[in-house]
Amino acid sequence: ILFRREMVSGSYEPRWVTVRIEGEKRPRKALAFLMNRAHDRYAGRLDEAVTADAIAKAIGPLGACRDYLNETVKALEALGIRDRPLKRMQRMVFERLDPAR
Fold this sequence. Notes:
The chain is α+β, with helices and mostly antiparallel strands. It has helices at 2-7, 48-57, 65-78, 84-97; strands spanning 12-19, 28-35, 59-60, 63-64. A hairpin with a 2-residue loop joins strand 3 (59-60) and strand 4 (63-64).
């Protein structure tokens, strides 16, 4: 289901990556979906602030991008995987949604 959902537009390239999981001695393989840089949806390398702005505002037919980001971080953490750059992006997006913070 995940593969079908991510591969529907051709904008991603599936790759096996090595991850380290808290509490496990050996690294594991995980399936990651990387942006296809040849695809017309690829925006190029964007500044983190520009990316956070876009994620905070973007909403599509499947929901808000910020919700997708939050659910991704939560699911990874439930598996014992801490993705520091993704967590930093989550904080940056949250700051844009709650400027009083």
